[in-house]
Amino acid sequence: MKYLLFLPLVVALAVGQNLLTNGDFEQEITVGWTYSDSGVGTHQADRQVGYHPDPDYEAMTYQYDNPGWTRLAQRVDVPGTQLTLSFWASFEETGGTSSCWPAACFAVCYYNAANTLLGETRYYYSTYANWTPTSTFSLKRVTNPAWTQYSLNIMDELTQNLPGINPPDVARLEVALYAYTYSG
Ligand SMILES: [Ca+2]
User: Fold this and answer.
1) From ligand 1's centre to the CA of 47, what distance in Å?
2) Ligand 1 centroid, distance to 95 Cα (angstroms)
3) Cα of 127 from ligand 1 centre, angstroms
4) What DSSP string runs through 113-166?
5) What distance in Å separates the CA atoms of residue 139 and residue 86, rounded to the nearest whole number?
6) Ligand 1 centre from 162 Cα, in Å?
7) CB of 29 within 8 A of CB of 184?
């Protein structure tokens, strides 16, 4: 079982241009964002003003019961990889064991021009998740689930943590609020 909460998300060029549509969730989450789920368990994705105490909207995904997932994602064309992704997020998990566990995630997926998935950077908050990184899968464990502003320099991330991805091949980025539950 689990939750992921989340505040204004901005993908910005070095010059500060925002590439996302409705990254602040001030419009309905159907604007710019694509919802999907595993079809198993209880799913929720919505926006509220009260997930964070500021007066603006935040979005959340929620997954209950194992296994399953709920995802709210947006894929955008990017003009190269000299980009900084910044976002506010809060994470929450409830319950879990080593064989049956939740993970609250924020995923950054890298695609080429043909929409082939090249790799992923995954922020995650989970007591029991046992994922391991690879040359195309970078893991960033969140230890403080409270509202925090995160920043990811895409070129640095590719160079330092994703050697299996050739940066010039990246034509699109997808960001996703990803609520996941595992059961063995
Ligand atoms: Ca708020």
Assistant:
1) 9
2) 26
3) 27
4) TT--EEEEEEEEE-SS-----BTTEEEEE----S-EEEEEEHHHHHHHH-TTS-
5) 17
6) 34
7) no
Question: Per-residue confidence at 128, pLDDT binned at 50, 70, 90?
Answer: very high
Give the other-Cβ count within 10 Å of 82's Cβ: 13
Distance 128 CA to ligand 1 centre (A): 29
Domains of the chain by start residue, with CATH:
2-183 (2.60.120.260)
- What does the pLDDT average to over 72-77? 94
What separation in Å is there between the alpha carbon of 34 and the centre of ligand 1? Answer: 21
pLDDT in tens, 141-175: 999 999 898 999 999 999 999 999 999 999 999 99
Sorting pLDDT into bands at 50, 70 and 90, what band is 64?
Answer: confident
> pTM to 2 decimals?
0.92
